[in-house]
Amino acid sequence: MTKPVIEVEALAKSFGDNEVLKDITEKVEPGQVIVVIGPSGGGKSTFLRCLNLLETPTSGKVAFEGQDLTTLDTKSVNSLREKMGMVFQGFNLFPNMTVLENIKLAPMKVKGTDDAAATKRAHELLQRVGLDDHADAFPTSLSGGQAQRVAIARALAMDPKVMLFDEPTSALDPEMVGEVLNVMQELAKEGMTMVVVTHEMGFAKSVGDRIWFMADGYIQENNTPENFFAHPETERAKDFLSKILM
Amino acid sequence: MKKKYGLLLAMIVALFMLVVPMSTQHAQAATDDSLEKIQKKGVLVMGTSPDYPPYEFQATVNGKSTVVGMDVKIGKKVAKDLGVKLKIKSMSFDSLLVALQTGKVDMIISGMNPTPARRKNVDFTHTYYQGGYDIVINKTDTAKYKNKDSFSGGTLGAQTGTTQYNAAKKQTKNTSVKGMTSQSDLILALQSHKLDGVAMEKPSAEAYVSNNKQLAMIPSDFNMSSSATSSAIAFRKGSTSLVNKVNVTVDQIKKDKLVKKDYLPAAGKYLKTNTVNTSMGHYWKAFLTGIEYTLIITVCSVFFGFIIGIILALARMAKGGVLKTALRWLATAYVEFIRGTPMMVQVMFVYFGLGLFVNLPALTSGIIAISLNSGAYVAEYIRGGINSVDDGQTEAARSLGMSNGKTMRYVVLPQALKNIWPSLGNEFITLIKDSSIVSIIGVTELIYQSNIVRSDTYRGVAPIVVIMVLYFILTFTASRILNYFERKMQHD
Ligand SMILES: Nc1ncnc2c1ncn2[C@@H]1O[C@H](COP(=O)(O)OP(=O)(O)O)[C@@H](O)[C@H]1O
Ligand SMILES: [Mg+2]
Predict the structure, then answer these.
(1) Which residues of B touch A154 (CB under 8 A)?
(2) Which of A78, B40, B71, B383 has the greatest number of beta carbons closer than 10 A?
(3) Measured on CA atoms in the order B357, B445, B107, B229, is the torsion positive or negative?
(4) Which ipTM was obtained for this model?
(5) Do both B218 and B256 map to the same domain?
(6) What pLDDT, in 10s, does the model give residues B388-410?
(7) Are residues B429 and B316 in the same domain?
(8) For B205-245, what is each residue's pLDDT tens digit?
(9) Which ligand is nearest the CA of A217, by number?
(10) Which ligand places an atom closest to the C-alpha of A38?
(11) 3-state helix/strand/coil string of B262-290
């Protein structure tokens, strides 16, 4: 058996008195697509941010390819973080740079890739997300769907081993959700390991390998999509599904 | 006599008195090598405030603005008799004593009276000139006024803080006395009939009257001790051997009546060449120099102030261990302190205070002080700018593997700067105006130059109008240029 890409053990995170994550122990295997669903405020974003240490866990262990991140120094954390691409609900493109520059920045400044190579790679990625004709545009001129696809291309430019998505389509107009989900589906097909927080149940069903249902600071249920949607095991999940599927 | 003395400066002098005696003065008193030192150095630096014809003033000699006057003649003779070269350093009268104390100059010759108060802090030579006071009036009033007692019910003017100002206050009855800092302003007030007479030193009065046909002079008849009407050369306390040697020169000057016979007439000639053409166009070179220095100071200070500002802003935002907390406190304290003290004091502190340890030229001191000052303000703008950048930007950059430093440099700061560009532009324009403060330490920027032109031409308003227009052209051009860049950035 291969080593898990991500291993979380007894992870807990509090903000002051607010215990957001209480005790989480899970694994992500290579090539798996994990879909995290759950009620708003249940700690999904916090969980995702603990995986690449944007948020420092209060206790517990987060390991990437067998290496415990919580014990590493800042520099090693920085270099491990580039292996975990992250896509945000709000895109977070750099507004003062063109699309191409957004994608080239990290490879050039972090990896030291030269300009020509970075440019070539950026164009490849833009073609992959269908936006090469927008290479010289500034982010403000893009639609939400286009911006999110650029953000995905930007994360991919660091050649990550795993991609973390935090509600990538929640800020989009409905007609643009599809173009982003298509790109994500392509990625999954190519074998990318992914952890996706989303409310898109269709995507969860068709692309997800496992559903992690998260509420009240715990992963309440870890199930296959078929079972989770047809026969949820916990009351909490049943309750949640009945509300969103109405 | 010139005896201007701001309370502020008095306090600063007092501060230095506390420091200096322990270091230099006592050491000198123990082993007086003052004469030997100067002769070894080969240069004697004379401090003077060249806005006081005919004692000392700026004149255009062979197309170059030069300090001339009877005091300069005296300085040259002193240097010659010592067998060294004379170097003249100009600064405001208020700054002279501190400059002497802190070693910026070796002696002061600037129409200075050897008053008992000053004697406590410096050593004076014998007096080289015995002056007196006259009152300048409008020629049309010649019949009305005879001396100081004729002004009952009227108004007399004098330079604030001078001996004649105090005399006018104490020795007249029923007369209101109005003080102004500049001689040219007083004459202007006289001509516009806001004053009935202006008390000033005899040579100055003579200069004004001979250059302005509408003015006349009458004796003041002030009752004065001789120390208040005479001029002497000041040296650092404890320079006995040097003072003794220079006294030989001074005594000879007095015996041969060199001041009356030679020095004053020579100075008068410069006054004439100086005032043949009092049109502002004639002084374009002086104003150009002023613009040049104003721009040098502003541009350098903006540049260094910006760098200091970034460092301070980052230090103020440092979070973490004891070291970073200490850094944050230090930066905060610095910013608060700088913003809570006048820039003028900071300029004097850098020039005179740091001058105790390193000999910084006035221009450099000015740039350092203004940069340090501007840095504190810029830091606050930058901090605001950094806070205005969405946290999502930092998160995105960090998630791409960028370090804190790179995130700051490539992602946050460029956006922060764009947001605060208008404030930074304002700071630049403020600095163009505020750089005028360094005129007090003798940097030849616009204000300083305009004062020189005013005392040279005996014209009070014209030079002010000229520099007002010049300042406006500078700030207006600057704001156009800044707007251009702002618009360009908005396209991004
Ligand atoms: N930086 C923070 N400081 C304090 N509380 C936070 C912070 N981030 C999130 N929380 C709190 O943690 C809880 C979970 O938030 P979040 O992880 O965003 O949930 P979800 O993504 O599932 O909606 C919320 O109560 C939120 O207020
Ligand atoms: Mg969330």
Answers:
(1) 396, 400
(2) B71
(3) negative
(4) 0.94
(5) no
(6) 999 999 999 999 999 999 999 99
(7) yes
(8) 877 787 778 889 999 888 887 777 789 999 999 999 999 99
(9) 1
(10) 1
(11) HHHHHHHHHHHHHHCCCCHHHHHHHHHHH
